[in-house]
Design a protein that fits this description.
The chain has about 700 residues and is α+β, with helices and mostly antiparallel strands. Helix content is about 35%, strand content about 25%. It is built from 21 helices and 29 strands.
Length: about 700
């Protein structure tokens, strides 16, 4: 949901409002992120106070990632980080690629629906707290930005955004790049040299003293960046000093050696419009570090600091992926844009063939043609790259045709990078980045790609192992849960199971409905401690034991008692809660017994809704002689009985009784014409947010005249 393009009136209004927000809050850097149409990514749209290239690692932020701008949108709250120490504690990945003393706030930009997030950054010199007035100003600014975004989207008739983020000037405080004569005279009279650089790092003014010390004429320096026009400053450590000054807005000093041996002290003084630099001869000559002799021709070109930070950011992101699809999504959403690629194929070595596990930017018929090629294929360079472990780069179709004449025709691309994924000499797969037009691969880009391939290989191998374990565990749990609920005359039933989203997405929650003749049934729900294979396996044993005792006509308290004896004999070191309900449809009575389980919630035909008071016995598996009291309630036509596990009601920092009361209110207001939709209502956000620390089981029963 963005403007229609640069220069449009609506875009101008948005730019002005954004710049005004940055200026009025006193922030040194501002950024506006917008939700992508699929609402899975936040895309950087506008940036103020820093060059766009600085934001390369953060132009696309997955909404699920642990980052301030993502948390602000996902949790609909203002996120304040008052210091670098707090950043390290709360957002270690962000701190890794933003290692500067600063404070920041991320605020949701919401209109009728969520639009994105506003990010504001200040130097660390500001107070490490935010006042209510500041919070109110930021919140009102976000509402104004949301209105402009919605008006722009309505006029454009779409939510298409800019292809690339754009820098917006603050609009105040800019000095002229051409100083007046008096100012020039003043600067020239100062000892040493003076320079001015803009926020992109380009020289905008160089005094004659600076020219003498730097060894270049002004015409050779103006409009260039120091690390481009001065070879002896072409090192990531010097560019990092400039980056630190721009982001932290604090003075930075360092010493550099101008060949053959003149040491210079360089002092950087930043503000919102750029950097003033003072260059003076160093008072002390630090000894040069010993280094092997090599010619300038053989010396590699150092990678840019921005690319190194980008590599760090992507490496940190790769450590957090879980499954193979997560790896594919990360490579597609962050690594492809980082290298300007338009196509991706990620293949795994499986039984002597290359199986495509993920792709972007290719039609399905092309993927079908490339999938399943043998490892020793001569159709594409993928097999050779994987076998040799050496990356292959092809800048044009002509280069590819020399050895692989058919590959360009099938691929439809114009340039390729084949990156083998190798772990300890073991081939894992191949990552192929491709381009829609010819693309040269400079030495430093090849080095970064090759380094990144090793990280992708590690993440990819871990993800495959996780997916295999998850499939086995998930299959085990699904086999242990009932495939369906038996039809019982006089009862309407519905059930739902949601796994925890942390760990392996399995757990020990279970439910069951057991037919006990023509006029009786048993409903059971339980929760085995843990979210792993052991919990799922014990859940199967508990469910089997309850089912066996129930079908023998055992009373509810004895069903729990005998199951408890079994678990104490097995000694599984895992505790289990359980709620058992015997429904006598002929006598119209429900008899309940509980083992450390939350109470069921009852809704009567007249609308009265309340938790059922069931005296709880101890958890199963602790005391072999435990007693489980029973409770009996009437079974009336139209009444609803909801059985659930604690994952539905337990929240950190929330009282359990209060959570059960909220569940009771939701049940009171729910429509019971469709029990599956009623379950959706009871689950609320738990069914849609995708973030659950505990699994949930839910069983709903309604007594009716007809099934």
């Amino acid at each position: 949901m963005t403007g229609t393009g640069d220069g449009a009136p609506d875009a101008d209004a948005l730019d002005a409002a954004f710049a005004e927000t940055v200026r009025r809050t006193g922030a040194s850097i501002g950024a506006l992120y917008l939700l992508a149409p699929d609402e899975r990514l936040l895309l950087l749209d506008l940036l103020c106070g820093a060059p766009v290239e600085f934001a390369a690692p953060w132009t696309k932020v997955p909404l699920a990632s642990p980052a301030p701008v993502a948390d602000a949108v996902r949790e609909d709250r203002l996120v304040w980080v008052g210091s670098q120490e707090e950043m390290v504690r709360s957002y270690p990945r962000t701190a890794l690629v933003l290692p500067y003393p600063l404070a920041l706030v991320a605020a949701p930009v919401n209109g009728v629906r969520p639009c994105g997030s506003l990010l504001l950054m200040w130097p660390a010199t500001r107070p490490p707290y935010m006042t209510q007035r500041e919070r109110g100003n930021i919140t009102s600014s976000c509402r104004r930005l949301a209105r402009l975004l919605e008006e722009t989207a309505e006029k454009a008739g779409s939510r298409a955004g800019r292809a690339q983020p754009r820098a917006v000037p603050v609009g105040t405080g800019h000095r002229s790049a051409s100083p007046e004569a008096a100012l020039s005279d003043f600067v020239e009279r100062l000892p040493g040299g003076s320079c001015a650089l803009d926020l992109e790092g380009r020289f905008t003014y160089v005094s004659s003293g600076a020219c003498a010390l730097l060894g270049r004429d002004a015409g050779q320096l103006l409009g260039t960046q120091p690390w481009q026009s001065l070879r002896w400053l072409d090192d990531p450590s010097y560019e990092e000093r400039y980056r630190a000054a721009v982001i932290s807005r604090e003075p930075v000093s360092f010493t550099a050696c101008r060949p053959p041996g003149q040491w210079l002290d360089i002092h950087l003084y930043p503000d919102a419009s750029g950097i003033s630099a003072r260059v003076v001869p160093s008072g002390a000559h630090p000894p040069p570090s010993p280094a092997p002799r090599r010619s300038a021709r053989d010396a590699p070109t150092p990678a840019r600091a921005g690319q190194l930070y980008q590599l760090l950011h992507l490496a940190a992101a790769l450590t957090e992926v879980v499954g193979v699809q997560d790896v594919v999504d990360l490579v597609a959403d962050q690594i492809m844009p980082a290298f300007g690629a338009q196509g991706l194929v990620l293949s795994t070595a499986d039984a002597g063939r290359l199986r495509i596990t993920g792709h972007r930017g290719y039609p399905s018929h092309t993927i079908r043609r490339l999938d399943g090629l043998p490892l020793d294929t001569s159709f594409t360079p993928a097999g050779q790259a994987l076998g040799s472990g050496i990356p292959a780069f092809f800048a044009t179709p002509e280069e590819m045709r020399r050895n692989y004449p058919e590959a360009p025709l099938v691929s439809g691309k114009q340039a390729w990078a084949f990156l083998p994924l190798i772990i300890s000499g073991r081939p894992v797969g191949v990552c192929i980045l491709s381009y829609d037009s010819p693309h040269t691969f400079p030495a430093e880009e090849r080095a970064v790609m090759t380094s990144l391939a090793g990280l992708i290989a590690q993440a990819f191998d871990r993800a495959r192992l996780y997916d295999t374990k998850h499939a086995l565990a998930h299959g085990l749990q699904q086999a242990l849960l009932p495939r369906g609920l038996p039809p019982i005359t006089g009862l309407r039933v519905a059930a739902r199971y949601l796994p925890a989203t942390r760990g392996m997405e399995i757990g020990g929650d279970f439910y069951d409905l057991i037919r006990l003749g023509e006029t009786a049934a048993a409903a059971v729900i339980g929760d085995v401690q843990g979210h792993n294979v052991a919990a799922a396996a014990l859940m199967g044993q508990v469910r089997t034991a309850v089912h066996a005792h129930a079908t023998l006509g055992t009373p509810p308290d004895q069903v729990l008692h005998r199951t408890n004896r079994l678990l104490t004999d097995l000694g599984p070191d895992l505790f289990t809660s359980c709620l058992y309900a015997h429904l006598d449809l002929a006598r119209r009575r429900v008899t309940l017994a509980a083992a450390g389980h939350p109470p069921p919630v009852l809704r009567l035909p007249d609308g009265e809704t309340r938790p059922v008071v069931v005296p709880p016995g101890p958890l199963l598996g602790i005391d072999p002689d435990a007693v489980f009291p029973v409770t009996e309630i009437p079974l009336t036509t139209g009444m609803l009985l909801v059985l659930y596990t604690d994952g539905l009601v337990e929240r950190p920092g929330t009282d359990l009784d209060e959570s059960i009361a909220h569940l009771t209110h939701r049940l009171a207001a729910a429509d019971d014409r469709d029990l599956d939709l009623l379950i959706d209502t009871l689950l609320g956000k738990a069914a849609t947010t995708g973030q659950r620390t505990d699994d949930i089981a839910l069983l709903v029963l309604q007594h009716a005249t007809h099934p």
